[in-house]
# Entry
Amino acid sequence: MRRSADRARRGKRKGPTDLQIKLVTLVGLLVLWESLSRLGYISPLSLPRPTRLASTLWDLSVYGFPTDITVWLHIRATMSRIIQGYLLATAVAIPLGLIIGRSYLLERGTNPIITFARSVATISLLPLAIAWFGVSELSRVLLIMYGAFWAILTNTIQGARSVDINFINVGRMFGAKRSRIFFRVILPATLPRIFAGLKIALGISFMVIIGVEMIGTVEGLGALIQQARFFYKSDMAIDGTIFIGVLGLILSVLLDRVERLALPWAVGLEEVKR
Amino acid sequence: MKTARFRQGLIASWSGFLLLILLWQFISSVLITESSLFPGPVQVMRSTMQNLALTRLLQHLGISLQRIGLGFVIGTALGITFGVICGWYRTLGSVLRTPIELVRPVPPLAWIPLAIIWLGLGESSKVFIIFLGAFFPVFTNTYKGMTTIEPNIIRSAQMLGLKGGRLLLRVVVPATLPDIATGIRLGWSYSFGCMVAAELIAAQSGLGYLIMHARELGITAIIVFGIVLIGVTNLITDYLIQELILKRRLRWHFLGTEQA
# Structure
């Protein structure tokens, strides 16, 4: 990121770089945390020291918590739910969004419904899903699907609506048929917004699944940290939270890569609104 | 021509909305035999009125709004403060951003167990979760705004002799306000989701608790009513923040974008 304000104010950068400062800060914080903990200023029960967390990490990945469910199994459970719900949402939302976005009346007609459905907090649907489908995988996958669906749908609609009319006219002028215009002009022109929606949707699904897993299951990262809380194992809870953060980071980096591969022409399209 | 099209659109909006409600009623009363599991709009209203006193409902709503208000205000205030500090002082900013950026990828809901371990089951753990929901979007957007200001704005201010605190408060922060507004709006929607989830998972009151409790009692109508109420509350509050506060305060900015 360009720090233009800073540059304009001070001229050239001097001194240590951003990364150096961050590394020093990180090490400093860890040392401070460890020593405060060893000196007894931080209760090890509520905030275990870093070395303890590292050894717990080993326990989690070899013995697991609750017994025999290693952290890798938790990650697999979480990921499989996310992928199922996310793919379902994508498969339905993109075609639907393209159709709605290309028709003014359809767009207007569905607008109030979509606006409202998006405002419904996804997690608030959990009790209803449980009442209908029980505490099951189906409920969890459907909730992820719901959360991801509206983000992808609204972005696809926005993208399809705002395709430059000249692109379409040029296609028409060259005698392209409607279907060809749809697949060769409208779809590619909409892709950047679709990806924007996919990114937002991934963040939402990740958030939803963690919340959903806290109720009624023992498998999954959300379940791991919630179980750790029940047994007051704060080291397990912190490690689980770290795993969640790392997984979230990996997912978003992956999606960035995919976007860059699929849309080399749209790098830097940052204007995204939900 | 344009107005006729607009009117058509308006009619389509309303008919879409009405159609959905009619469809919902139709499915529940004709297609589904067990109407207690899939209550239509009429049953939802009737059953809710029978089973839930209005005062109780208002209590739940009130406590939810109180929690989210508190967490959101703290989160926004700290988010703006830290964002401005990190954008203004480079070295201090790098130091402060280290822990913030490490913690940021963790979704706020994942803090619920730790919040309970650290803060107990009382109000503070819920407010903490809501706070996290608001803090990160406000912080990242403020910081982004601070660091991407048009350099010429600052240069011209400097040329006119502005520096230090006055430059920051009179020029840089106002120029960042549109980004802060984006952050605030995102922050509100995140903290709203956080509030519902926190109440669902660990609370004895509030809208989230209301629907979770209704599930335990097996009254689907109240669950549906609660979901709709949560959605409407979210919609109204978001509208209030966007239209009444942000747009009025930032008229100069939004006027420009709407014309473009």
Summary: The two ends of chain B are 22 Å apart (CA to CA). Chain B touches chain A through 77 residues (CB under 8 Å).
